[in-house]
Specification:
The chain is α/β, with parallel strands linked by helices. The protein is 33% helix and 29% strand. It binds adenosine-5'-diphosphate (ADP) and magnesium ion.
């Protein structure tokens, strides 16, 4: 389990925190979706969690052990797929994975098998210098899985990928959860977060604005309503009824000339907008 407890970070030491009082936990065998617009503080938290930024205030624990005291044993148990992660351009995709695998003192996954899973089998022996942005992204993702990490950090794993490849990556992420990994997923994509996450946190302005299961968020913040299209005076009109006012809805359905009914469940996107007053953007 990863625990983040009351983390604050002030880059300039002038009392203005980029992130404030951030607390959450990512259990083994679960996916935690971390959502927020640009500038919300996602990278700051990721970097503190992975030790790239020192902790100023608060604590990050991996199975009870502070990130301040982690050793090479931690390196063997963590997988990180960030956009800015460097690959070796002069090596092939396969060589990149083999080289990386050799750094671990734990059993690693067969590199060719991983390349196959991310759709890079045919490009395995091509130099990474000739890879497209999407191919590099998939290679970085594959590299993060090579040591079967117990803690997995993924930053926008499917953005910019074609739908078929994105489905394959989603499956791989779910497999990591199934084998017990704690997955920390940062994304702009509400759809991806909704589909994969056991818990989502909405980060906005450096604080967590809401955090729960996607289902609970929809229940609490979602508008459960029905849009009724009806005909009146020769024109199509519409009205929206909250589902909790069944009497009003049924009275209207009986009296009006109904054309169509649509049930509307709130999406995470709409809930984010409601909780923060801001669009998540792309
Ligand atoms: P996100 O990853 O959600 O886009 P960041 O964590 O990168 O957000 O940034 C959060 C806030 O911290 C932003 O206001 C950003 O300008 C500020 N920030 C990020 N990195 C630095 C830095 N190295 N020095 C000063 N401010 C920074
Ligand atoms: Mg960022």
């Amino acid at each position: 389990m990863i625990q983040v407890n009351h983390v604050f970070h002030d880059y300039e030491g002038k009392g203005k925190c980029a992130v404030s009082d951030i607390s959450f936990a990512v259990e083994g065998g679960s996916i935690f979706g971390f959502l927020g617009p640009s500038g919300a503080g996602k990278s700051t938290i990721q970097n503190i969690m992975t030790g790239l930024l020192p902790i100023q205030q608060g604590e990050v624990l991996y199975d009870g052990k502070s990130v301040r005291h982690l050793n090479t044993g931690f390196f063997n148990r963590v997988g990180v797929s960030f956009e800015q992660n460097n690959l070796y351009s002069s090596l092939t995709g396969l060589e990149n994975l083999k080289y990386y695998a050799a750094l671990f003192s734990v059993p690693t996954v067969n590199p060719m098998e991983l390349l196959e899973r991310v759709g890079l089998r045919d490009d395995a022996n091509k130099r990474v210098a000739r890879y497209s942005k999407g191919m590099r992204q998939r290679l970085t993702f594959a590299r993060a899985l090579i040591n079967r990490p117990q803690y997995l950090f993924l930053d926008e794993p499917t953005s910019g990928l074609d739908p078929k490849t994105a489905v394959g990556i989603r499956e791989l992420i779910l497999e990591q959860k199934a084998r017990g990994a704690a997955v920390f997923l940062t994304t702009h994509s509400m759809e991806l977060a909704d589909a994969l996450s056991d818990t989502v946190a909405f980060l906005y302005g450096g604080v967590i604005a809401a955090m729960d299961t996607p289902e609970a968020l929809k229940r609490v913040y979602g508008r459960r309503e029905v849009r009724v299209v009806y005909r009146e005076a020769g024109e199509e009109r519409e009205r929206i009824f909250p589902l909790d006012d069944k009497a009003a809805l049924s009275a209207f359905l009986t009296a009006a000339d109904i054309v169509k009914l649509h049930s509307q469940e709130a999406t995470l996107e709409e809930i984010f907008l409601r909780v923060t007053g801001k669009e998540l953007g792309a």
